[in-house]
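We modelled the chain as a single entity of 174 amino acids. Its sequence is:
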Amino acid sequence: HFRQSQLNEARTHWAMYLHTSEQLVRLDPNNADWQMELSYALNNLGGVARYQGRIGEALAYFRRSAKLKANVLSTRPHDQALRYDLIDTLSWISSGDESEGRLQEAAAGYAEQIAMLRILVANKPDALVWERRLATLLLSSGNLAVSQGRLNEAHAQIEESIARLSALTARESD
């Protein structure tokens, strides 16, 4: 009960943030910074809705956020942090699709995110957060592949995830 009241309070604050950021975008629709603020408000409301079990509502927020981030990324194609932020939002969408039983969409989403993360990690191998995210996405995708009966693909992804997590653990303990 306490957690639910905290989530309701958070939702109220994020809704005010959403309202303000929507007003800013209306004032200057081409302002990429304001579009990003709007995407952050949407992401936060999506997270609250997800934790409250309102998956459909969460997905609507996340999809709108991803569209904004992709639009801004098209004008800033070398912004790796923004690309990672987009991947994060896309992973919420895939997770929601999986929860809602849209397994093909979830699998396609995970594949897209993994491909994007592989590029980020290749360009910046010392970004341990990105490496860890790649490993966890491989694990999520592998688990989904198991549930779909794609066992060879699942085995390869889970093995790669374990190898990456093992290497990360060794790097972090040095």
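As a brief sanity check on the tokenised model: The helical segments are 2-27, 32-51, 55-75, 80-99, 103-123, 128-147, 151-173. The chain is about 85% helix and 0% strand.
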